[in-house]
Design goal:
CATH topology of the largest domain: Rossmann fold
CATH architecture of the largest domain: 3-Layer(aba) Sandwich
Low-confidence stretches: 224-230, 261-275, 502-527
Number of helices: 18
Helix content: 40-55%
Number of domains: 3
CATH class of the largest domain: Alpha Beta
CATH superfamily of the largest domain: P-loop containing nucleotide triphosphate hydrolases
Shape: globular
Distance between the termini: 64 Å
Number of strands: 20
Radius of gyration: 26 Å
Strand order of the largest sheet: 5-6-7-3-8-9
Length: 604
Amino acid sequence: MAPPLLLLKDIALTFGTSPLLTGAELGVSAGDRITLVGRNGSGKSTLLKIAAGLVQPDSGTRFAQPGATIRYLPQEPDLSGYASTGAYVAAGLGPGDDEYRAHYLLGELGLNGEEDPKRLSGGEARRAALARTLAPSPDILLLDEPTNHLDLPAIEWLEKELASLRSGIVLISHDRRLLESLSKGIIWLDRGTTRTLDRGFSHFEAWRDEVLEQEERDKHKLGRKLVMEEDWLRYGVTARRKRNVKRLGDLHGLRKKLKEQRGGGSGLRMEAGETEVSGKLVVVADHVTKSFGDRVIVRDFTDRILRGDRVGIVGPNGAGKTTLLGLLTGTLAPDEGEVKVGTNLTIVTLDQRRATLDPAMTLANALTGGHGERVIIGGQSRHVVSYMKDFLFGPEQANTPVGVLSGGERGRLMLAQALAQPANLLVLDEPTNDLDLETLDLLQEMLADYPGTVLVVSHDRDFLDRVATSTIASEGDGNWVEYAGGYSDMVAQRGYGVRAGAKAQTTPADERAKPVSVRADPPGKAKRLSFKDKHVLESLPGKIAGLQADIAKFQRMLDDPNLYAKNPQKFQKTTQDLTAAETALAAAEEQWLTLEMMREELDA
């Protein structure tokens, strides 16, 4: 085994009066692929910051091999003080680092290096931070939730990029598919200490359950009763996972039935038992078209969503997922065609931006609306503390202000609020952002029990596989097609996943306009496209087509497995040409998008 480049031993840290870490350990060697897992609030991010040298522990040792380069990706990157994203990424380069790689990474992540950090969205800031972290090709990468706010093409690109690196990687992520693909070892942080498993993430849950069950048996042998709420919270995860094994089997059967029924045109579905049931037809979309300017976002889309369906909507950022969601729920009117919303329909939308949460309100009052100590769930009155426990909150947290809750806890609170409202159509727009693995388990559990219909926009492939009975996917150019099953079923049917080519479909409803590189008109003066801008807009499609042809040519040359052995210089030159062409293509597409959006705004 290779000697560790980074080693943490007997790390202890206390916040206030509560010990967070009590003897945690971490070792990273060249080429390691380590997943750091643990319950929300267990100290994963703090341990990663200690590994990065950003937080000093109360006790224990941190050793980094002299000369080893370590790069850390925080959950909330800070770009203040930098004039552009390019300057921010360049500041992370060291002597001898390849500046061209920094430009390549920015292009791959949908940035051109000229964006003003003050105008970036959270997702764009994370993309810039990823480019800064990966550009030096460091010896060790410490990544805290790298896929948050990335779309599916970016996530799948990142997965391939990380797999190609020689760096040792320590990864915190809620994306099970990414973890299963990359991890070769697991460090489980539980109650302040760490346990290690030298196997991939797909073995984690079974291993964790065995450890917890053995602890339970040992405690019973010692005559100790498991009466603490913490034990229920921990062991409850195991029970829920086992129940979901059967539910997952039921879901596969439901997908098969859905495919057979819709293929035969019957359109019938099993009826879900609800106190207030909706009509059998929840949404009927008939040849619906929606455009913004000259760009068609939804083109001649026809579909029926039936009571009890769980429909996933997937596509790259800017494809029009939020627009399609608005059409299906009746909040956005189509330009052509008709959308009929079913009878007796009550809609609840899960606001993952958490803008509706009052930070000064206590957790209990947030659930009761400040009225008493009871909530009505499914027509039955329950004490708020009892309902809180369903969402992994302890009784002592009832009077905790919402403002001090962690991101995962706020996510659970939003779930509790949404599912407490009487509804038969649940609309989830990016529900998995910032949720930890345990909260994702809880969300899947809640959806398995939910008696109504679900529409969900998500970039989480595993989540869609576990939840969706059908998937509506963007095919580009405003075309959307529904496939039976989850994300993997969709890939099996169409032959590929979500591609980034639809990013030119950006609309005001889906993503705010990116900072433009063309000069803005002075205030008070009517905006217009200059003659040069018009010429560039007309010539860019031909340039983009030429770059795509060059990329295909270089890729065919590199497909020769013997090229490097026969001609190393040609292999190196072709690789450089391919990278340059891909970067140029990304820049050209971005420039076209900027100018096209400006033209549409002027036309409007």
